[in-house]
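Researcher: First entry.
Model:
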Amino acid sequence: MKRILVTGGAGFLGSHLCERLVASGSDVLCVDNFFTGNKENIKHLLGHPHFELMRHDVTFPLYVEVDEIYNLACPASPVHYQFDPVQTTKTSVHGAINMLGLAKRVKAKILQASTSEVYGDPEVQPQSEAYWGRVNPIGIRSCYDEGKRCAETLFFDYWRQHHLRIKVARIFNTYGEDAAR
């Protein structure tokens, strides 16, 4: 049985991912600091024998044994990420460093949940992987945009330097009945 870590696991996307992974027979460790995540999103999983919840902030190292990591931790809504922009940047950058370090130590594969915001305010619709974007590194949204860009850089540098098995998913607009939480 795979032991899978989901950071930001009590958030909108993370909670659905945890649910899916538990249903597939995996042992899931959900980590969240509950800044934007909500226990209501995962309360139906709390009694499940293959689900564990840990309150933890990814800006601090985490010492667990896992086979796979899904790094979804970061406030995604402007109202949330602009509330404490320094912490938002730290969550993306320090969180990536800490999760990559963990993945390297335990030889786990790791996925980074990135964003379409890495393109900035694009001049091209839709964006292809060849498009590098039009960014503003000092604007009000930069804490999120640049934090995610730096996290992607770190992921690819760990892949090149340490041969870590990585995936980066640039998630575009997501919505659902719980998305506003």
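Researcher: Second entry.
Model:
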Amino acid sequence: MKVKIQHIIAALMGAVSAMSAMADGTTELTVTKTGTHMVKVSLSGFTGEAESVLKFDLSVLGMEITPPDTAEYLVAGHENGRIEGTLSVAGSTRPLWARTYAGAATRSQAHAFADDIVKEIRQTAPIFQGRIAFRLEKGGATEIYVADFDGANPIPLTHDGALVQGPSWAPGGQRLFYTSWKNGATQILEHNLETGMRRVFAGYPGTSFSPEVSPDGQKVAMILSMGGSPNLYVSDIGGGNPRQLTHSRDEDSSPCWSPDSRTICFVCRKGRARLETIGVEGGQPQPVRVGIAGNLTAPDWSPDGKWIAFTSGSGNFSLWVMPAGGGVAQQLVEGEDPCWAPNSRTIIFSRRANNKRILCLLDVPTKHVKDVRQLSGSCSEPSWAR
């Protein structure tokens, strides 16, 4: 049985992604037959909220709920104030493990159980107890909301009745940065979720927008016009010592950081929008070799440093992913505004449906899409707390 379990896990790890070396030393993302494999899992003994949460969570990571006779893995258990569950390989006589989850609401217990299941099967970091921030537009007003990763427990963070854009988490999940027009001018606000206090982080002449905190929590990249063209700047986390990194007459936007906080990928509009990178200390920006033409926007660097996801198109948008060092990009699904989860496998994004935008979760290797719980209004620009 040990050999069988190792064989299954190895196959599933290989399904996450496959790379082939190219002549220039970069890598090309390829999808093999195993890369699209939906793992068949049976679920028994659970009812109500626990069953609903488990089905949703497992589906997000590319798992299909099936009857036991067709399943590769068996999930069983029950809930009665606490969840007791087991995970087994189909055909085995003993479970891989049996665990108990207590001391929290049923939803939290079920999320914790699902985290353990996908860690075993998919060999990925847990994400089901994470939070997201996003922009909600309703009745002509826009506000920043915070919710569980699946859209449950939504809480309005702002009540300004003014235009807001681009929420971005600081490491630790207790502070958000976003662009606001509540004071008339375009400003970047810093919002402390624990105290509710907020302050103007950047409000220079011209425009101030697109804040993005570095993974080490020490710096903030942003776009400032200072009365001229929008260029890329970096400041200390406290807002001091802003330094201009780009000096272009073109329009820069949408910075994102490499996981080591040393490089920034951003959008430069030289005719069509394209992706460029620059070191945090400055220098000459370098175009990112993508292998496709079109308007390329909204890049996001995966936490493991391997991939950059981005949006391509104008009017009809689609998500793409490419090796972080450049290479041939691969189209994923229709949508825009991609943001990686901490597991570097799942992406939350927005797509257009019924004259509004909704938030969705994408399992990149299988391209399986799951809509999050929907709110009244149009939801966009999601950001995953890391």
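Model: Note on the second entry: Residues 131-384 form a domain with the Neuraminidase fold (CATH 2.120.10.30).
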